[in-house]
Amino acid sequence: MQAVILAAGRGTRMNHLTNETPKPMFKVAGKNLIEHKLDAMPPEIDEVIIVVGYLGDKIKDYFGSQHKGRKISYVRQGDLKGTGSALWLVQSLLKDRFIVMMGDDIYREEDIKRCLDNSWSILVQKSDDAKIGAKVIVGSRGEIRDILEKTPVKVGDFNNAGMYVLGKEIFDYPLVQIQNGEYGLPQTMLKAAKDFEIKIVETSNWYQITSPEDVERVDKILMAQASV
C-alpha cells in the first residue's frame, strides 16, 4: 500500500524558524516530523510518496530513496495551490487505495491502522478547548455533512486531523477551489462522500504543529510519554 505525505508548505506561522529548515523537518522528541510518520506506519505501507516544495531538497537529501526498507519517492509542487492540488500531482503514481497525511502533524500507529481498516476514512479529534480549526460536521447517521476550515471549533466539536484513506476514485471528482486560488482536498472529498462512505475515526493522539510554541509543547508531551 502507498502513503502520500504532503510536505510542500512554507510554514509561515513558524516565523524565522523556517528560513533554513522546512517545517516537516523540525525535530520533536528526538525525531523530525516526517520520521514520526514513517516510524508509525504499519508494515502494509511499503511505499511513501512525499510531495515537497519549499526547501524540498533538504527533505530529499535527508531521506533519500528509502527509510528502514520502505521505498520513498518525491514529487515537487511548484505553485503551492493547496492540499487538493498537491495530491493531484501524484495521481499517476498511485496504484490503488492509499493514505494521505499532513507533513507537519504527528499521528499514532494505532490510529493509522484504524483508518486503514476502512475503505475510505478521515481522522478527527474531539476538541477539548475553543479554537480556530477545521470543523467536521457529522450527520445523524455518522456521515460527513461538511468540513469548515479556519472556523471556530467549540469544545466537543470534531476537528479535522488531516489524515485520510481514499480510493483512486477521488480523482473522478473535480477539485474544489477555495480561498486564494487554492484547491482543497477536504472540500473535494465532500463531493466523493455523496457516493462513498467515509468513516469517521476518532483519536485523542493527534499533534498538530502550527507555531513555535507547539514544537515546545508537543516535545514535552512526547518526552514525558516516552519516560513512562
Instruction: Please provide the ordered H/E string of secondary-structure elements.
Output: EEEHEHEEHEEHEEEEEEHEEH
User: Which consecutive residue ranges, at least 5 long each, have pLDDT under 50?
Assistant: none
Helix content: 10-25%
Radius of gyration: 17 Å
Q: Quick one: CATH class?
A: Alpha Beta
Largest sheet: 10 strands, mixed
> Terminal Cα separation, in Å?
33 Å
- Specify the oligomeric state: single chain
CATH topology name, in short, is: Spore Coat Polysaccharide Biosynthesis Protein SpsA, Chain A
What is the number of domains?
1
Description:
The structure is a single chain. With 228 residues, the protein is α/β, with parallel strands linked by helices. It has one domain (2-122, 162-207): Alpha-Beta Complex (Spore Coat Polysaccharide Biosynthesis Protein SpsA, Chain A). 24% of the residues lie in helices and 33% in strands. It is built from 6 helices and 16 strands. It has helices spanning 33-40, 56-63, 82-88, 109-116, 185-192, 212-227; strands at 2-7, 27-28, 31-32, 47-52, 66-67, 70-76, 98-102, 105-106, 121-126, 131-138, 144-153, 158-166, 176-177, 183-184, 199-203, 207-208. Strands 1, 4, 5, 6, 7, 9, 10, 11, 12 and 15 form a 10-stranded mixed β-sheet that branches. It has a two-stranded antiparallel sheet with strand order 2-3. A hairpin with a 2-residue loop joins strand 5 and strand 6. It is globular, with a radius of gyration of 17 Å. The mean pLDDT is 95.
